[in-house]
Amino acid sequence: MTSCSTVQALPQSNSLTHPVKEINRDSQLIMAGDYDTSIQSLSKTLQNIKLILSGDAKISIPTVPDSNKRQKEAPTAHPSIDCEPKEEDTTPSATPTAFEYDFYHDETQDRPSCFLETRVAVQGRGQTIETRSVSVFQYPMIVKGDCFDGPLDARLCEELSCVAIYNLALAHQLRAIAMADTMRFTVDRRDMASSKAYLAKALSLFEYSHLIFQQQKIPVRMPALHCMALVGNLGQIHHLLGDSTRSDDCHKYLLSVLMYAVDAERVRNRELSERDRHAVDGFLATVQHLAVFEDCCTAPAA
Length: 302
Fold this sequence. Notes:
The protein is mostly helical. It has helices spanning 2-13, 19-31, 35-54, 67-72, 154-182, 189-215, 223-240, 244-267, 274-286, 288-298, and strands at residues 15-17, 58-60, 100-103, 115-123, 129-137, 141-144.
C-alpha cells in the first residue's frame, strides 16, 4: 500500500508551475519589497528549469484563451504583468513562436521613478562607517507571450534562466540596500557584513546574467535599456563595495551605451517613448559628471 501510494504521488510532485508564471509572480514580489521571498522563489525557479531541461520534471500547461475569449475575459489580479501578445491573432490557430522580455511597467501604480535613490551606510577604510548615495534601476524583468504549449527546449530554458538570474541579482541588491539603509541610524556590524554578502552575490549574478545575454539573442523589447540596467546596477554595487575603479569603468560604459541608444533613435527619426526617456534620464543623471567633464575638455576646440 505504501509503495502504491508513493507511485501515485510522483506525477503530482513532478508537475511544476510554468517558469514564466513563476518569474512574473516573483517580479510582483520584488516590486512589493518582499525580497527574501522572491530570492527563495527565484532560486527554486532556476532549479525547476534545470529539472525541466533534464526531463526529470513536467510542467503544468496554463490554459490560454483564444483571441476571441481573450477580449471578453476579466482583467487578471496583476494587470501590470501582461502575458498576452501585443498584436492581434488573425487566425485562431496562430501560436507565438517565442516569449518576449521587458521590464516591469505599470502606469497605474503609484511609483514615481524606476530608480531607487537613497543613501546607505557602508564600511569605509579601516573600521570607519560612512554613507554613500546609490541609484538603482529597481524594475525587474517580466515575460510576455502565451506560447505555453510550446516545448521548453534548451534555447528557451536559457532565455528564462537569464531573466530569472537578472531578477535574482536585483532582489539581492535591493535586499542589501534595504539593510544598509536602516543602518544609517543604528549600525550593526553583523548586518553590515550580511549586506555586503548580498551585494557580492548580486554582483556575481548580474555578471552571469550579462554573460548569457551576450551569448544569446534574447528578444528583449529594448536591448540597450537592458544593457544600461545591467551596467548601471553593476556600477552601483562596485560603488558601495568601495571599488571606485570598476565603478568608474561601468559608468563610462553606461555613458557610451546611452549615447548609442539616443543616436540610434535619432537615425530612425524616432523619439524615445516616455517610459524609456524617463529611464534614460535616470541613467544620465548617474553619469552626468562624466559628460560634463568631457564637455569641459572639448569646449576650447569647439
